[in-house]
Amino acid sequence: xxxxxxxxxxxxxxxxxxxxxxxxxxxxxxxxxxxxxxxxxxxxxxxxxxxxxxxxxxxxxxxxxxxxxxxxxxxxxxxxxxxxxxxxxxxxxxxxxxxxxxxxxxxxxxxxxxxxxxxxxxxxxxxxxxxxxxxxxxxxxxxxxxxxxxxxxxxxxxxxxxxxxxxxxxxxxxxxxxxxxxxxxxxxxxxxxxxxxxxxxxxxxxxxxxxxxxxxxxxxxxxxxxxxxxxxxxx
Length: 235
What we know:
The structure is a single chain. By secondary structure, this protein is mostly helical. It has one domain: Ferritin, core subunit, four-helix bundle (Ferritin), CATH 1.20.1260. Helix content is about 75%, strand content about 0%. The longest helix is centred in the N-terminal third of the chain and has 30 residues. It holds the Pfam family MiaE_2. It comes from Arthrobacter jiangjiafuii.
């Protein structure tokens, strides 16, 4: 792909050169990433209070701290782009908050499943996007995912919970299906409202663009199904 220089300041919004489109795409990409990390930190640290054991509380607290560290890294990169992190996050606040309002867990185990499902889908989405980014930006995005222990920790705890109480299986399977539907709908809404992939697929004809988006969401759904299978749940 064409080499880009994402650390240059953004040009005025009226400009529409490929470089300007790409920079605005980066503003949206890191804006939604930053707000996602901040929201994860807030909810994970809050829900840790309801953990059934002190060990669980400690583990979730540590994961929450990691989410905040990621938020700080993304915010710092936004500042390197010459952007205000709060301004970059603001367009995504209503829809992300609405998603969390629609998917309030009934208990700690549903909260754990929500973290597991949404964190994994986000990781899959950003990894797919990273394949189209310039090397510097891709390195930052993939570095956040590689340093992320959340998925493995949550999967192990869910497996333990299901082994300890098999009655949880049907409820968590149903909850997982609802979560993936809401999460994918939320991701599609962001793509439509902010054209988040527009900076990557600029110049692509409409039909091919739509096919690329469909393939992306099909891949996200398949990955979710594999994760549910590892838990012994029906996706």
